[in-house]
Amino acid sequence: MRLDIFKYVSNQGLPNEWRVEECRLSQTNLIVGKNASGKSRILKAIYLLSQLLSGDDIQARNDEWHLFFDIDQPEHKTEYLLKIDRGLVVQEKLIIYGESDRPILERDESGEGTIFAKEINQVIRFQTDKTEIAVVKRRDSIQHPFLEILYQWSNSLRFYEFGTQLGKNFMSLMSYPTGELSTNKTQLKNSTYVVSIFQTGKQEIGDNFIQAIISDMRKIGYQLSKIGTKIPSTINPDIYADNFDNFDGLPEFIYVKEEDLNYVTEQSEISQGMFRALSLLIQINYSLLASKPSCIVIDDIGEGLDYQRSSAMIKILIEKAKIGLFQLVMTTNDEFIMNGVPIEYWSVIERSPGRARLHNIYNSRDKIEDFKFIGLNNFDLFTSELLLEKASNEA
Questions:
Q1: Which of 57, 311, 348, 358 is the Cys-Cys partner for 340 at CB 3.0 to 4.6 Å?
Q2: Whether residue 177 has a cis bond before it, omega within 30° of 0
Q3: All CATH 3.40.50 domain ranges in the chain, comma separated
Q4: What pLDDT digit, counting tens, does each position of 6-35 carry?
Q5: In the chain, which ranges are E strands?
Q6: Which residues, in sequence order, are CB contacts of 160 under 8 Å at separation 6+?
Q7: Spans in the chain with pLDDT lower than 70
Q8: For 248-273, how does the pLDDT look when each residue is reduced to its tens digit (9 = 90+)?
């Protein structure tokens, strides 16, 4: 399932209303824009919806999402609309055009609605709480199997903020002497828990997982020969020796061994740029080998890496997305990143008060094709503002 069209409104009708006009996405996407243009906000709106559709509480939100999936596959084309006003669901609609042009799920602000029941082959009425999302609460793999597809998309979406610590300041707790993870510490969708994700991947997948990470790290210029976890050298494990049978939770963190060094580098000593790359590749490779992500969303990709490494990282991600393993959505305002990503993948944000509009190959194809013949760097397309309506009108 691939997200093709995304519309979003926050705080509709209020002074702080903000909206994303119809945004068309492809398999690989790089959203570019100036600071405070809405890049991160767009990604977080997609991520927030995925969390809500995975079962998170609505809370006091005022948001509206309108999504289209798989629009180039008539038998799978899906439309989903969700509108929340002050923490209450006021409208929800799901259409799968291969099934019917009419909604197979629809409800209003009262919580009353209808849904198609497959086993009895008819539409039935339902009543749900006003604070509940029907596509979540009505999940039933027998009567409503079509809801599972939407749930799988949302639950397998992964969101990473590359400009953050990405778990560098966190460790995991292991049960000794068994070497098993303390199960309540593993949160596979939370990038903070990268150590636990690495340990889970090692236990579930084994050496193929570790070698995939090492291979990708070497491609971006980090010549690693080994990755593992260990008790920090600042902790003396001997003080726990007499209590191993009863002790649950000795901390461990990641270490790496570089080929040209005769010692290992512990997590606390790994540079922030290197750790961001390592953390992202650990989590993406685990998702690919274990959980098969529907979409990987990365904010500020390449932040903190030099030109060569950020370019190599982008190439790895694009190659993985290109073969259909997942949909890739990234943001940046970095010149090196822009020059390393074909402009066919670009979406340039045009920001005006309370509004963000994205210009890309779908709505600005002629301008993009013309720019290719000029012979300038990709970054010049961004600085020239050639794709923006405002710039065009002024010209």
A1: 311
A2: yes
A3: 3-157+293-394
A4: 999 999 989 999 999 988 999 999 999 888
A5: 3-10, 18-24, 28-32, 63-69, 78-85, 88-96, 105-108, 112-117, 122-127, 158-161, 172-175, 180-181, 224-230, 248-258, 264-266, 295-299, 327-332, 346-352, 355-360
A6: 166, 191, 280, 283, 296, 297, 298, 299
A7: 173-186, 237-249, 389-395
A8: 567 889 999 999 999 999 999 999 99
